Structures are given as structure tokens and as C-alpha cells.
Amino acid sequence: MVTADDYRFLVAEDAINRIENRVKLWGLPYPLNKAVALEQIKKLKSTFMKIKYSYLPYTMLIEFEEFKNLEQFVRELASILLPPKTLKLDTTTTKLAVAEIRYALSVLLGLRNRIALGDGNNPEYAIDIVGVEVGYVEKHPKAKKLWVTKAGTEQFSLTIVTNIQGIKKGELRGAAILPPIAFFDIVSEAMYCTNPLEKSFKGKRIPSNFVHKVEIINVVESIVENVR
């Protein structure tokens, strides 16, 4: 497997850079021991590079011992970087920064499963595309053509701002987990990228033949420009 140029590894490398840049900048309303966080990131980067330049077949790569180390470093970073559950995030800037940390950690924790998709170096393989149930829909208070939705599974919930007219509570759609964006002060953590699907897809990766790929490919290409 040509791991060095694979979209999955390039997007993951960008995720590490996002975490490192945020730690250096910080400015969030809860304390951080930067020295500890940066040391953990150093270990994470070293382990990631061992995986990236292993050039192992994907069937061997997903069993590679270094993946376990990488995932452990990511979980430890999550415990350091994420805010206490009781902390209310008051500003859009803070919400966006925390959402970006969550996104980057998620990219890294999901890397092994995306490698398991096979040898194909497809842009859509670089991100998680998960079946989520729409649980809440309301008009965006500041944008006529946008809707604010909450969607998820039993394990997680996402805020997704969309321009899909007629989106309904109870629908099951595929959501691409992308770098968060603030749309008029509301942070969107993903993008719907399928038509309504059968309920059996909830919580599962959506097969590529159901996915509207054009926008996803454009976003992934813009991400990997940062690390190529």
C-alpha cells in the first residue's frame, strides 16, 4: 500500500497539525498544561510517521502494533484537550475551536477502520461517512436558506447546518464528518451527503455508491493541500 500519498494518511496528518496548532495557540476558557500536551503530540507524530511510511499491505497495516499505540496517544490527548462536560462554551470562536479538536481526534481514532476499506486511494475514504438519524430541525435564525439540525446515533450527536430543503426529523442520512464551519454563529460539524436511507444504516459507514461525492472530494482536496 502506497501509504505516504494516500488521502487517508494526508487527512490524518492534517488532523495532527490542527491539534498541534491549537495547543500552541490555545486561548480556550479552561486550563491546559502545554508542555504535557506537546510531549504527547510529539509521541503521536512519531508513531504516525512509522505507520505512514511502513508501506505495508492494508491487511497487515490494520494489525500493525503501532496503530494501538497511536490510538492510545489520541485517547490520552482527548482527556487533556477536551473541556469538562460541565463547562458551558459561550462564544462561537470557542465552540468552533473545540469542535475542531473533536474533529481531529475523531479522524485519528477512525484511521484504522478507514484503512480497512482497502487499497483504493479514494478521497471519500479519507473521512468518516456515517448513517445518522435526524432528531431536530429548525430554520436558521440568521440565514433564510439554511436549516439547523441535530443528528446522530446512540453513541454521538452532531449539529449540522444544511441547505437541504424539506429535510425532516426522523430521516436517516449519511453525514460526512468534516472540519467544522461556523454558519452565521452556528457551528456545523458535518455535511449530509446522501438521500434518505434505510434505518439499517444507522451508525454504520455508508457505502460509496450511496454518497454524493463531489462536495466531499472538493473538501478533502482542500484539506490535503495543507500537507502535500
Automatic annotation (TrEMBL):
<dbReference type="Pfam" id="PF18489">
    <property type="entry name" value="Alpha_Helical"/>
</dbReference>
<feature type="domain" description="Alpha helical">
    <location>
        <begin position="3"/>
        <end position="118"/>
    </location>
</feature>
<protein>
    <submittedName>
        <fullName>tRNA-binding protein</fullName>
    </submittedName>
</protein>
<dbReference type="InterPro" id="IPR012340">
    <property type="entry name" value="NA-bd_OB-fold"/>
</dbReference>
<dbReference type="InterPro" id="IPR041169">
    <property type="entry name" value="Alpha_helical"/>
</dbReference>
